[in-house]
Amino acid sequence: MSTPVLDVRGLAYAYPDGHQALFGVDLHVHRGERVALLGPNGAGKTTLVLHLNGILAAGAGSVSVSGLPVTKPNVQEVRRRVGIVFQDPDDQLFMPSVRDDVAFGPANLGLRGEALERRVREALDKVGMVDFADRPPHHLSFGQRRRVAVATVLAMEPEILVLDEPSSNLDPASRRELAEILRGLDVTVLMVTHDLPYAFELCPRSVVLSDGVVVADGATYDVLTDDALMSAHRLELPFGFDPRTIGSPSAG
Ligand SMILES: Nc1ncnc2c1ncn2[C@@H]1O[C@H](COP(=O)(O)OP(=O)(O)OP(=O)(O)O)[C@@H](O)[C@H]1O
């Protein structure tokens, strides 16, 4: 099989106060996959994500992105390859205009002039925000800001897009629109979420992390319909949502 885009092996991590958050996590994500990372509060999902672009350094084990180890000397290239969209778009948008925010990363990589303009336009086009290029980000709705945050990451042409709770704080229409955008992207996706219907809709595969350990890794349908697994790890389907009555969504 090809080199995984994301290859996490035996990853263990303890915070400086001694709290052990990850115990030997293995996770392999291949090109084009969309994978949901599920698990109760405190499972270690954020801790894992912070290792993917070198914000945290592995205590034991390793993380590689398309064969490149996530280590200090590689951190700049790793951060181009791993695009993380954090939960709060305001953590990612700080320039006077949408265009400037989306241009910031590629300009840092040395892109200029028409090449930079094109990169920005393409990224905004992917999230349906071209018409907002001249607007100050703080004048946009929350849902629009989240889409711009996704564009800032796409403009780096990452190998993997990591999304932390992408559906949080979105109204139903914005939630659906973002799902359509994400489904249409030609990029590998790892999505951290407590929104199990969103995981079901978007990600054919789910990985469940609990107490710092991977306790399940398989088809999202199988994970969400495994009642013993779900209750053992405090995962609950919202009232009225039953994957069995919907059936497996297409992987497309
Ligand atoms: N800076 C820190 N120092 C010490 N312990 C921490 C720190 N950050 C997180 N933890 C602990 O590590 C464990 C994993 O936390 P983490 O934030 O990775 O979980 P999570 O799965 O992302 O949770 P949530 O779903 O609530 O976002 C928790 O027990 C948490 O209290």
TrEMBL record:
<dbReference type="InterPro" id="IPR003439">
    <property type="entry name" value="ABC_transporter-like_ATP-bd"/>
</dbReference>
<keyword id="KW-1278">Translocase</keyword>
<keyword id="KW-0547">Nucleotide-binding</keyword>
<dbReference type="Pfam" id="PF00005">
    <property type="entry name" value="ABC_tran"/>
</dbReference>
<dbReference type="InterPro" id="IPR005876">
    <property type="entry name" value="Co_trans_ATP-bd"/>
</dbReference>
<keyword id="KW-0067">ATP-binding</keyword>
<dbReference type="InterPro" id="IPR017871">
    <property type="entry name" value="ABC_transporter-like_CS"/>
</dbReference>
<dbReference type="InterPro" id="IPR027417">
    <property type="entry name" value="P-loop_NTPase"/>
</dbReference>
<keyword id="KW-0813">Transport</keyword>
<keyword id="KW-1003">Cell membrane</keyword>
<dbReference type="InterPro" id="IPR015856">
    <property type="entry name" value="ABC_transpr_CbiO/EcfA_su"/>
</dbReference>
<comment type="function">
    <text>Probably part of an ABC transporter complex. Responsible for energy coupling to the transport system.</text>
</comment>
<comment type="function">
    <text>Part of an ABC transporter complex. Responsible for energy coupling to the transport system.</text>
</comment>
<keyword id="KW-0472">Membrane</keyword>
<dbReference type="InterPro" id="IPR050095">
    <property type="entry name" value="ECF_ABC_transporter_ATP-bd"/>
</dbReference>
<feature type="domain" description="ABC transporter">
    <location>
        <begin position="6"/>
        <end position="236"/>
    </location>
</feature>
<protein>
    <recommendedName>
        <fullName>ABC transporter ATP-binding protein</fullName>
    </recommendedName>
</protein>
<dbReference type="InterPro" id="IPR003593">
    <property type="entry name" value="AAA+_ATPase"/>
</dbReference>
<comment type="similarity">
    <text>Belongs to the ABC transporter superfamily.</text>
</comment>
<dbReference type="GO" id="GO:0005524">
    <property type="term" value="F:ATP binding"/>
</dbReference>
